[in-house]
Specification:
It contains 6 helices and 6 strands; from the N terminus they run βααβααβαβββα. The protein is α/β, with parallel strands linked by helices. Strand 5 and strand 6 form a beta hairpin.
Length: 135
């Protein structure tokens, strides 16, 4: 069974904007080598950040989100998981992983998520670690 992964917003942003290991991790999901998950909260955060960080137009932002919806499975969360980390924005990532039965969360968040190492048997890893294991 392929790994099931939630990509944190920072991985989506980096993968879309600069490629590198985050981009390669996204390609694993696009190709079906891994099952990628997301939720509305992650996509909304990405929608807010694409114009600011990458200077995307509203048209390009909408097209990017539509592309992601084409290969990432949308998980419905209820925003009931709170206080796992000091950053409330990370709760949606963890809840998405829990509700979607993910095996991994891929993130670049070295302050809050990566120090956890895992949550309920969900491994929390960098893009480089994930790509090295599953490419």
């Amino acid at each position: 069974m392929p790994p099931v992964v939630v990509y944190d917003t920072n991985i989506l942003l980096s993968g879309i904007g600069w490629g590198g290991k985050p981009g390669r991790c996204l390609e694993l999901a696009r190709q079906g080598s891994v099952k990628g998950l997301t939720c509305t909260g992650i996509l909304q955060e990405l929608e807010e950040k694409l114009p600011i960080k990458l200077n995307f137009s509203s048209v390009r932002t909408a097209a990017t989100l539509e592309d992601l919806r084409g290969f990432l499975t949308l998980v419905r969360i209820h925003n009931t998981l709170t206080g796992v980390t000091a950053d409330p924005d990370d709760d949606k990532v963890i809840e998405c992983a829990v509700r979607g039965a993910a095996t991994h969360i891929v993130t670049g968040d070295r302050r809050h998520l990566l120090p956890l190492g895992n949550y309920q048997d969900i491994r929390i890893v960098t893009a480089a670690e994930f790509y090295a294991q599953f490419s």
